Amino acid sequence: MSAVDLLIWIVLGATLAGVGLTIVVATTALAAASMRLLPSAILAGFVLAMPLSLPLARKLAAKI
Q: What distance in Å separates the CA atoms of residue 9 and residue 12, rounded to the nearest whole number?
């Protein structure tokens, strides 16, 4: 994993983790179990960002 891959993964992972956090907190049915769901939503954001960041980094590196 190159530096570009890592940088994009960190930024994209934080973004997706924030989206997951917002969904859990803003949804009334999920907010009751937020202490259990928040770590899972944050982890899922970072895990989902991994396969998304690699092709994006390759496209960016090809343009440079």
A: 5
pTM of the model: 0.84
Domain extent listing, the chain = 3-58
Question: Per-residue DSSP letters for the chain?
Answer: --HHHHHHHHHHHHHHHHHHHHHHHH-HHHHTTHHHHHHHHHHHHHHHHHHHHHHHHHHHHHH-
Mean pLDDT of 46-58: 92
For residue 43, which amino acid is it?
Answer: L
Q: Please report, to the nearest 10 degrees, the dihedral formed by the alpha carbons of residues 50, 54, 60, 64 taken in order.
A: 130
Above 80 in pLDDT, residue 64?
no
Residue pair 9/53 in contact (Cβ under 8 Å)? The answer is: yes
